[in-house]
Amino acid sequence: MRRTRILTAVLALAAGLLAGTPPALATADAPAAPAPLAAESYTWRNARVDGGGFVPGIVFNRKEKNLAYARTDIGGAYRWQESSRTWTPLLDSVGWNEWGHTGVVSLASDPVDPNKVFAAVGTYTNGWDPTNGAVLRSADRGASWQKTDLPFKLGGNMPGRGMGERLAVDPNKDSVLYLGAPSGKGLWRSTDSGVTWSQVTNFPNVGTYAQDPSDTSGYASDNQGIVWVTFDESTGTAGSATKTIYVGVADQGNAVYRSTDAGATWSRLAGQPTGYLAHKGVLDAVNGYLYLAYSDKGGPYDGGKGRLYRYATATGTWTDISPVAEADTYYGFSGLTVDRQHPGTVMATAYSSWWPDTQIFRSTNSGGTWTKAWDYSSYPNRDNRYTMDVSSVPWLTWGANPSPPEQTPKLGWMTEALEIDPFNSDRMMYGTGATIYGTEDLTKWDSGAKFTVRPMVQGLEETAVNDLASPPSGAPLLSALGDIGGFRHTDLTKVPAMMYTSPNFTTTTSLDYAEKDPNTVVRVGDQDSGPHVAFSTDNGANWFAGTDPSGVSGGGTVAAAADGSRFVWSPQGTGVQYTTGFGSSWSASSGIPAGAVVESDRVDPKTFYGFKSGKFYVSSDGGATFTASAATGLPSGDSVRFKALPGTKGDVWLAGGASDGAYGLWHSTDSGATFTKLSGVEQADTIGFGKAAAGASYQTLYTSAKIGGVRGIFRSTDKGASWTRINDDAHQWGWTGGAITGDPRVYGRVYVATNGRGIVYGDTSDTGGGSGGGGGTDPTPTPTGACTVTYKVTNQWSGGFQADVQLTNSGSSAWTGWSLGWTFADGQKVSQVWNAEHTQTGAAVTVKNVGWNAGVAAGSSVGFGFTGSWSGTNTKPTAFTLGDRTCTTG
Known about the structure:
Belongs to the glycosyl hydrolase 74 family. The chain is mainly β.
């Protein structure tokens, strides 16, 4: 039952299969508009949740200390930043037309040149993903990428995505790479560092296993193919291709193959166990052992039986080293790692054990004997070798109070990624369906002392966002999320203490607040049992469940009356319903079809709106009856989102469409009786409102759209007459068609829903605004008083480095803007700055504040960071100037 509940959530929303699956992309059929102007500088960050999705892979570089990467199934790839102990996103540049490339099926860090990293990308192998897969390659640790398109699809969010790694770099000759393909496409090889690829035509097995061959969607019925590649580095020398290569295949009878001649010929490994899939194959070249983690299913959520095996590479001897008897397994093994400092130490996970918890196993004698992370002292009581500290991400308890042997927080589930730091035996990280956990005192396990497990996930944001609201008072942001429900953010820079509870929806599909009473909030969502609607009277801080009308099977969409006196709900499974009060009973609305999207007028509490299949519907009696509008020319499909403008009755904006029909942005000022299509907007998928610009009489509009032939996030301060693109090519986040809203209290702030990169919000450096959202910035005032600067290089590699700068106002008066200058002595070049703007002329660098960090009180500090290039030497600047004064260096 529990597996079914979680499986449903994974397939439905968090993994982006249903509500999160972007529609087919369109070609423009609207009149050409002038190219949108470049915006003033925007700073983009995440509203912190920390995690929230499945992390199927963690990869440490084995040549350079502290260089690690994580891959996610729908949210891109990340690089570990040791100085801040955070993760840096690497694939935010993926754009709308290639949204599938945010799914990362495998990742490889070059063991010869640590600057190089490779990612195999693509989200679905069936028709849900319109593009083929690709291999991305970077020579600067993921700061920039080059791409090679593949002639087949890849499945970062397909069954079997936790197996791997499917992409591998030859540790002796790093121009050689291998990639295991799904869908019967076989094994592929590159001999030019990932630039070109060709199939290894003599590889004998393309895989046979599918999770559910009868699935007509092509999702569960896809052949999971070639699932990992492992080199035996001891069989090669630097500059020559490694001779012995092991390959894992999704075939329960023929799971492991080997080449001993650098890939010229291949054969099935003799004597191997059958009846299982080899999820991982990890080689200990020092002791000559290939370790294999087996499961009867492909994962990441299924698996009923499993084994661990050790293969002696010199003798061909197979040894079953499983820590428990097969009859005692109700899970498969997947997570698998070797301590490179002490190669006899091996660890593995029971990845599919949901109840009562996952299990982690550890051996210090090459699998001869094992100990467990937890065991029963006397059932149902547990004796844990660890303590868990989730104070940095407190929602990981899910607000639960389970009975033994369950505990909260759990060690995890879907634990297919498990890695011991190759340079530090005390550090281990592992991925779950919700986060990355880690420890830095792992060897206490062996002495009998308890090691501490903590989230190590800050910076990695992987939620799929279904809806967003920014009320005029109370919390600045309310969110509806897949898998973990959603949050009330009172501080965007801090992780909220808990997701919505009482009730807990696995996925929240829609939420709304009463415009004139923002303390009244409603949300609807999905769960296996219990009500699908909840209400709050304190701005989302606390909740109570409503009552479902008969037939409800899912959340759908919901709307709150402007005064909070009534609600209209369009759930899955039955028709549109309305209620007065807080949903103790519901009545069927008439005149509107089931499945319609519903919204409320933000002024008149009796007026509600709906849309379904090209028709707009209006109710003037609180949702009891709806009448179809006579408006024509609206999108015929159901990929539509619309909103009513706060403060003006009957002012409605509608965005949506599809490539085979109407697509764009429409505006009505008469409650939907008529709509006017904005001629300059070729495509639009969301619409939201925020605080009006200075001097403007109309609220600021925000949309995820295609305008002037460019896809992006756009803003208008003149009622849609002109638009400014406010993101850039480095900040695209794949598909952004779920939801958007401005902030009614902060001009220029916009919240953007992504499908796997969490809630992104942007702040403008333009504090006043202007026509068309352009607006200039005033010259930065010259601060007065003393200043102190601390400049620290936090990471350095061949040809590149990263630095953090802290500027302190050590005077007695506050600053309302700042501009810091310095000169590089060795020709260094700044390439990217965050939390500030910069210019560089020759050796001279000037860094200025952005809008949100212009004010610096006396005694306070402001920080920014940057990456840059260098050659020869990388001498730190010795002098910093703030206006006409020289700062003290700290």
